[in-house]
Design brief:
heterodimer, A: mainly alpha, two-stranded antiparallel sheet, two-stranded antiparallel ribbon, B: mainly alpha, 2 domains, about 0% strand, globular
């Protein structure tokens, strides 16, 4: 049964790519075809999630407390259901969590010690399973929202949307650094065409170009950083590896070894550049207002819900595990460069959001503010911060995507989202108003709705008392101010648009302007319901990621001890529980695959 | 016994001709074309003959694998894997060029055009196997001389003549420089055989670098710098590419680059069985010179390309910039003597991969220009491509693939090449006294340059897809060209998604033997 699901994981990437090739053939009927294919992908995702959950939950339950005094075990991610796993061959228990599918090899070697190679190494773990689900969900929302809005060449439009989805899903699933980078960059091409060809205003070409070049510039530096990290951290036998789990182990074994501080700082700067641009983090956000403003609303949903997550996910999946010391040093705890940038971004984004007249831009700047908080949570680098941030990636994706989806309602009817033109919509569109309230309150972080849980977790992570100088509570204060400010600008918007004297701009179509119809009801109601469900049952999401969050947090603890010294007196950290990777099968039984280079130290 | 009657010498000297059978097939067909062509005109006839010659050369290359010369130090031709790689690259490009240039070959000069093309390709292939200063020089001239004719043949307008004259004068100058450098090499070592020269210089320079040898190397680098359009020897490129017929410009963008880089690698001793022993290691400062050339070439090429409105001038500067990326490979190869531990990318393998990728994307871009232009309405400015996405979706899609590959986006062959170069540059040892940190700086500079380069390529993509057609270009309707465009686009994508076969072939051609010193880790 298990091998079947490896094929499903492969299909998660393949189906959007195939859909992208097929959809344009349908011409005017492309939107129906796109919806069917997106539903197919959603079903596929649901199947993968349902199969993966028991496995991932079990990993969380099998964690055991650390033995004090023992050397820390090596922490690494363990992907499940890896397509091309040579250990399977009819025996589900012999999974090696590795793949044999090589795309590019850098050197020849004997079969048991292959040279460095780039592999098609994808798999599911607790960190990416929900993000893949988010991709499928937001894709459905984007298609439904674009239903009426995109009448011009719908075939290519939906085709590019699927390419965008494929890039995002592929990047989330990748466990090979170069493969991750390839998918990460693949998202640029569809975004360029989607913004440039189907954008709203006259500035769409410039916006598309700016987005492409800005992001590409950052990610080329990231590529240099990736190559640098790989080459400066060879395995103990001298080979280099692009596989993330092996590389994490190599990094942990070599910490404190060769490599000057200057080199580490340079590599870290290169590595984070692309991710910070993609998130975006102030002051690298300047591509964002134009891109979000000019993009058609369905694309804005995907940009904010998925592409921004690629940046934060890159920080979580790659930067934190591979450059933990630098992430501590330049994150929140030492020189705190990135923390300060993110903190400034929180306040700056919130103030900008308040100043906007266009609701779309308000949401865009609000997203900048929330993402700054998310980055802070990641950089706190402890169980609460990282877990909260991993959860917040999903929550923020749903709630910000839902906010943009709400705007599609107004755009379809009035072709404007200028809040000065609206007033008293509460009485005019009662059903729309209810959904808008739910989504807006969710984005503020009202208890019972999704963002509350993740923001509280991240806040708890920011109060970690181990950092010196009391600076980290300072970040927590900034983050709290961000939440407060977000309530301020969102509620102001709600007051202006939904209350007060009725006002509405001239409608696009003649005749009475209808309230939410069935299609919009499904899209908006569905997203609002997800916001509510995520707020009520966050543990369903948190449980599967527990083991993987523990991996990152353990790396963070070790790095903090190295950079900051041991914890201050009087502070007793909670006894951390560690996820132990399942013991790989002995060499020789797995069909020519090398034994993993890092056997776990025996207890 | 008389050493000259040694059977090994005999075998080496007589066996040399069998090493060049495919090239002889090409040259023979070309001679036939030159002799008979004036009396028997006809485009299809000579197109078929040239295609048959290329097919015959490929068949000969597959069927006849003669034994390698027993005494490389006496042989004027080599048959090492690198020579094989270059030969296949040249033959494949010959087939592509035959298809691509279909629209611009007139009935009156078809025999001469295809003859020149075959000679030039044979020249590139021979450059790959030349093991003697004389053979190397002759092979390079075999490439240059037909190019002068090709520049004149298809059209006789003023800009064409300017391009031809400019290229002729500068090419002759570079040949003279090359000969001057070769004369020093001969004077220092007393032989014209490259294997012997590299051996002698390696041993001599290991004791103390010889200034004269270095002077010779600098002259050779300068002379071949013309061929690979390295800054500051690039300035003919934009004018020539703009004035030349598009098909010839495509050949100029590719063939001299291949020949130039392979010749440089041969003379500098980078394409030998053990590149860990080189005549010009880092302490001779020659790698530093190449480093400076690489940085200048890519930066100047990219910055100048930003300013261009003419698509061919843009492609000319783009080809300059890519020459700079390729030079990174030579710099990396020059670091091998200092390498410790296993080496993943030796430099020359990256150069070979990048050359193949570069050929596909650049020739493809020129082929699109040729396909869309007609003699009275050639595609000149970037604006001529406006709205191409609507008027010619398939052709525009292919050009977009080539441009994305030139940017170096993943899933295209350009990315695989750039990745190898980045890895190579990052891996080169950083703690040598002469090149501290310079290699890693080079990787960062290359990354920044790629980002700059993206601007002007993306501008073309934007013009094609985001603007409505102003003046849709007329379709030349040349089926062979279209076929070539599609094939090149397919190759760009296939080698981007699955580059392993290409990379393996290149590594076989330019192997890096395992470390002689134990890994220090």
């Amino acid at each position: 049964m298990i091998p079947t699901f490896r094929i499903l994981v492969l299909l998660l990437v393949a189906v959007p790519l195939l859909s992208a090739a097929v959809v344009p053939l349908f011409g005017r009927a492309a939107r129906r075809a796109a919806l069917v294919l997106a539903l197919l992908q959603a079903g596929l995702t649901a199947a993968v999630v349902l199969v993966a959950l028991p496995v991932l939950n079990q990993r969380g339950e099998s964690m055991m407390p650390d033995t004090p005094g023992r050397a820390r075990p090596i922490q690494r991610f363990v992907p499940e259901f890896v397509p091309g796993d040579p250990g399977y061959r009819g025996n589900p228990d012999s999974s090696t969590h590795r793949t044999g599918w090589t795309l590019l090899s850098f050197g020849d070697g004997p079969a048991d010690r292959p040279g460095p190679r780039v592999q098609f190494y994808v798999g599911v773990d607790g960190l990416n399973v929900w993000l893949v689900a988010l991709c499928s969900l937001m894709m459905l929302a984007a298609i439904l929202v674009s239903w009426e809005a995109v009448a011009d060449r719908p075939g290519p439009f939906y085709g590019w949307l699927f390419v965008l989805q494929a890039g995002a899903v592929g990047a989330f699933l990748s466990f090979d650094l170069i493969l991750f980078y390839a998918f990460f960059e693949l998202t640029l091409i569809p975004s360029f065409f989607l913004i440039g060809r189907w954008g709203n205003g006259p500035g769409r070409r410039d916006a598309a170009r700016k987005f492409f070049l800005y992001t590409l510039g950052g990610s080329l530096l990231t590529l240099v950083g990736l190559v640098g990290v790989v080459l400066t951290n060879p395995l103990p036998d001298g080979r280099v590896t692009f596989a993330l789990p092996d590389l994490m182990a190599a990094v942990q074994q070599r910490t404190g070894g060769p490599g000057s501080a200057g080199l580490q700082a340079g590599l870290f700067a290169c590595l984070v550049a692309g991710f910070l641009v993609k998130v975006p983090v102030w002051p690298l956000h300047t591509w964002m207002p134009a891109a979000y403003r000019e993009a058609p609303i369905g694309v804005t949903i995907l940009l904010s819900a998925l592409l921004a997550k690629l940046g934060t996910f890159g920080l979580l999946r790659i930067v934190l595990p591979l450059m933990a010391d630098a992430a501590v040093e330049y994150g929140l705890y030492g020189r705190a460069v990135i923390g300060v940038l993110a903190g400034v971004g929180i306040v700056y984004g919130a103030l900008c959001a308040y100043a906007q007249r266009d609701i779309k831009m308000m949401v865009a700047y609000g997203s900048l503010s929330h993402l700054g908080f998310l980055v802070l949570g990641l950089l706190a680098f402890n169980t609460e911060g990282v877990g909260g941030a991993a959860l917040h990636m999903v929550n923020h994706g749903v709630s910000t995507g839902a906010l943009f989806a709400l705007l599609a309602f107004l755009l379809d009817r009035y072709r404007t989202t200028d809040m000065r033109a609206f007033g008293g919509l509460m009485g005019r569109f009662p059903r729309f108003a209810v959904l808008a309230f739910v989504v807006c309150l969710a984005s503020i972080g009202l208890p019972g709705l999704n963002n509350f849980v993740s923001e509280m977790l991240m806040m708890a992570g920011l109060f970690d008392p181990r950092a010196g100088g009391g600076r980290v509570p300072g970040f927590a204060v900034v983050a709290a101010a961000g939440i407060f400010l977000s309530a301020w600008y969102v509620l102001t918007m709600l007051r202006r648009v939904f209350f007060g004297p009725p006002a509405e701009p001239p409608a696009v179509a003649g005749g009475p302007v209808p309230d939410i119809d069935g299609r919009e009801g499904v899209a908006l109601g569905g997203l609002a319901a997800v916001c509510l469900l995520l707020g009520l049952f966050p543990q369903v999401v948190l449980d599967p990621m527990e083991a993987d969050v523990a991996v990152v947090a353990a790396i963070g603890d070790a790095a903090r001890d190295r950079v900051e010294g041991p914890a201050p007196k009087g502070y007793v950290p909670p006894a951390p529980r560690r996820f132990r990777a399942p013991d790989p099968p002995p060499a020789g039984g797995g069909g020519g695959l090398p034994p993993p280079p890092f056997p776990e130290p025996a207890d | 016994m008389n050493p000259l009657s040694d059977p090994a010498v005999q075998q080496t000297l007589t066996g040399v001709f069998r090493l060049a059978v495919p090239e002889i097939v090409l040259l023979g067909t070309a001679c036939l074309a030159f002799l008979v062509g004036p009396f028997v005109p006809g485009r299809r006839l000579w197109f078929g003959a040239a295609l048959a010659a290329v097919a015959g050369a490929m068949a000969a290359a597959v069927l006849d694998t003669p034994p390698p010369p027993e005494l490389p130090a006496a042989a004027s031709l080599l048959a090492d894997p690198a020579a094989g790689f270059v030969r296949w690259l040249a033959l494949a490009s010959a087939a592509v060029f035959l298809l691509v240039t279909w629209p611009e070959v007139g009935r009156g000069f078809a025999a001469e055009y295809y003859g020149c093309l075959l000679v030039a390709v044979a020249g590139v292939s021979l450059t790959g196997r030349a093991n003697d200063l004389v053979t190397l020089f002759l092979a390079l001239e075999l490439l240059s001389i037909p190019t002068y004719v090709l520049l004149y043949l298809p059209a006789q307008a003023r800009p064409n003549q300017e391009a031809a004259a400019k290229y002729f004068l500068l090419s002759v100058l570079s040949s003279a420089l090359l000969l001057f450098g070769f004369s020093y090499l001969y004077g220092l070592t007393g032989t014209t055989n490259l294997t012997a020269i590299v051996d002698t210089l390696t041993k001599a320079n290991a004791q103390s670098p010889s200034p004269l040898a270095l002077l010779a190397a600098v002259l050779v680098v300068a002379a071949l710098g013309f061929r690979v359009t390295a800054v500051p020897f690039h300035f003919y490129a934009p004018d020539v590419y703009e004035g030349a017929p598009a098909g010839v410009a495509a050949q100029l963008a590719f063939l001299p680059k291949v020949a130039g880089f392979v010749a440089l690698a041969r003379v500098l001793g980078l394409l030998v069985a053990d590149p860990r022993h080189q005549p010009f290691p880092a302490d001779t400062q020659l790698p530093l010179l190449l480093w400076v050339l690489a940085v200048l070439t890519m930066s100047v090429g990219n910055v100048m390309a930003l300013l261009q409105d003419n698509f061919r001038r843009l492609m000319a500067y783009s080809s300059v910039a890519h020459g700079g990326y390729l030079l990174i490979g030579l710099v990396v190869a020059g670091s091998l003597p200092d390498a410790r531990g296993p080496v993943e990318v030796g430099g020359m393998d990256a150069v070979l991969v990048y050359l193949a990728a570069y050929g596909a994307m650049t020739v493809g871009a020129f082929a699109v220009v040729l396909y869309l232009g007609t003699p009275d309405r050639p595609v000149e400015g970037v604006d001529d491509l406006a709205g191409l996405g609507e008027s010619y979706p398939v052709t525009a899609g292919c050009l977009a693939v080539f441009l994305f590959s030139l940017i170096g986006l993943p899933l295209t062959a350009g990315f695989a090449g750039k990745l190898l170069l980045f890895v190579g540059a990052f891996e080169a040892p950083a703690d040598t006294p002469s090149m501290t940190h310079l290699y890693r700086t080079l990787a960062v500079i290359a990354a920044v340059n790629s980002a700059v380069g993206a601007y002007y390529y993306l501008r073309v993509v934007g013009v094609m897809y985001l603007r409505s057609p102003v003046r849709p270009p007329a379709d030349s309707g040349a089926l062979p060209t279209k076929l070539a465009v599609l094939a090149l686009a397919a190759a760009t994508v296939v080698f981007g998604v699955y580059p392993d076969p290409l990379v393996r072939a290149a590594r076989q051609a330019a192997p890096v033997p395992a470390a002689t010193q134990p890994a220090v880790n």
